[in-house]
Amino acid sequence: MSTVLNYSVRTAALASLGAVAVVTLPLPAQAQTTQFNDVGSNYWARPFIENLASEEIIAGFPDGTFRPDQPVTRAQFAAIVRNAFQQPLDRTAPRFTDVPNNYWASAAIADAYSQGFLSGYPNGAFQPETQIPRVQVLVALANGLGYNPSGSVNEVLGVYRDRGQIPEYGQGPVAAATQNRLVVNYPNIDVLGPQRTATRADVAAFIYQALVAQGRMPALQAGLSASNYIVGNAPGAGAGSGPTSSSPRLVPNGTRLNVRYPNADVDIVVAPGQTVATSLQIAEPVRNSQNQVLIPEGSTVQGRIVPVEIRGAQVTAARFVADALNINGRTYTINAESSPIAATSSVNNTTLQGALITGAAESILATITGNRGLGSIVGEIITGENQPTSTSAVVVIRPSDLDLIVRSEFTVDAIANN
Q1: CA atoms within 13 A on the CB side of 263
Q2: Phi, psi angles (nearest 5°) of residue 414
Q3: DSSP 8-state code for residue 34
Q4: Neighbours of 86 (CB within 10 A)
Q5: Which CATH class is domain 251-412?
Q6: CB within 8 A of 360, min separation 6: which ones?
Q7: 228 burial class (0-12, 13-18, 19+ CB within 10 angstroms)?
Q8: How far is Cα 250 from Cα 293, in angstroms, rounded to an integer?
Q9: Chain-centroid distance, C-alpha 27
Q10: Around Cβ 41, how many Cβ atoms within 10 Å?
Q11: Which residues of the chain are modeled with pLDDT < 50?
């Protein structure tokens, strides 16, 4: 029998933080309390714990304690989700080699599996007594509740300083959990601690927030200090550990920058092998998962069109590489680049109307198009080497079509009034 509580499987599940829709056995008086002698008035998770206890969704131990810092095992967590949520049984549970029929949580494990919250290991084991990490709790909740991330996963996870510790399998589910405000991080809101063992307090907070997301529990009042540790909540006064409205904000690796040529929708045409300096503008605001503006529209991206060598291919190409970003007069060093754009000879005078063409590209285009009067359609000769080459192709870059991706994360100052 589990060491959580030794009254019954149902009572053990409740004491493990599980919810019961119908209480079929009377609970000990000690387990029905909403206040616990080891959860003080200043304890970070007190509102989550006491609110769940008041609804008889969780319970403590016979000695009046809750033991909030005690780790949670996979079996205990299975009992929690089995009773806390009414998800359909969409798959048949296998016979796990380390879960005998008489194991206290065998039915809970089977249901948690069938509901999609938990799975076993490739060797057919479930490892019921293994302590469960925080990342696995969040993955389980996101999967079991059917949450999927929207938008850029990298951008969402950019709110965590230790996002590099999130395993690949957990990145999408953790992003989805974040977007649904299931994640509660104490003491630092921007530190997820994905590999840290989940405690009873952690699980209480996650479960409470999952019930809030389902509309089954009310959101914590903004004035409570505990609400400051919910990722995605506006920072409250006196939090002391979460980001504030003036804190620097992270632009994560993988963020896409939509750009345009300033004040015009034109192509830039260069000759293969050229390096050409030019500036572009941010075409639409870049926001984080809290909908805060990281990079406002109209910010200037300074960079270069550089030649690209494609190994094993008889193709010349170029890409745009961003070196700096100017936001409201403040310049940030950045590392962002587009995919290579292959040179082409499929151009005509119509598509070149108003284009920005270097001198070397103009000479090549005269040969390709047969038009020696290209000067009439050249809007501007931008900087760069203008020596003609022997190639019969040019690189045509449409800034609005560039897939400009940030390759190294960087921080920017908070943007006021956004």
Answers
A1: 1
A2: -60, 140
A3: S
A4: 11
A5: mainly beta
A6: 270, 271, 274, 385, 386, 387, 388, 389
A7: buried
A8: 11
A9: 41
A10: 6
A11: 1-13, 15, 17-32, 234-246, 376-380, 416-418
Residues 6+ apart with CB under 8 A from 201: 43, 44, 45, 48, 49, 68, 69
For Cα atoms 144, 9, 91, give the angle at the middle one, nearest 5 degrees.
30
- Write the DSSP assignment of 195-243 as a string of letters: TSBPBHHHHHHHHHHHHHHTTSSPPPPTTSGGGGGBTTSPPPTT-SSS-
Instruction: List Cα–Cα distances, 31 to 40, 54, 282, in angstroms.
Output: 17, 11, 57
Residue among 325, 275, 326 nearest 304 (CA): 275
CA 316 to chain centre: 36
Specify the 3-state DSSP secondary structure of 44. Answer: coil
Q: How far apart are CA 156 and CA 150, in angstroms?
A: 9
Q: Among 109, 8, 17, which residue's Cα sits nearest to residue 56? A: 17
Give residue-wise pLDDT tens across range 128-175: 999 999 999 999 999 999 999 988 899 899 999 999 999 999 999 999
Burial degree of 59 (CB within 10 A; 0-12, 13-18, 19+): buried
Among 395, 379, 386, 396, which residue's Cα sits nearest to residue 363? 386
- What HEC string does 255-318 produce? CEECEECCCCCCCEEECCCCCEEEEEEECCCEECCCCCEEECCCCEEEEEEEEEECCCCCCEEE
Structural domain boundaries of the chain? 9-229, 251-412
Half-sphere exposure of 132 (CA within 13 A, CB side): 27
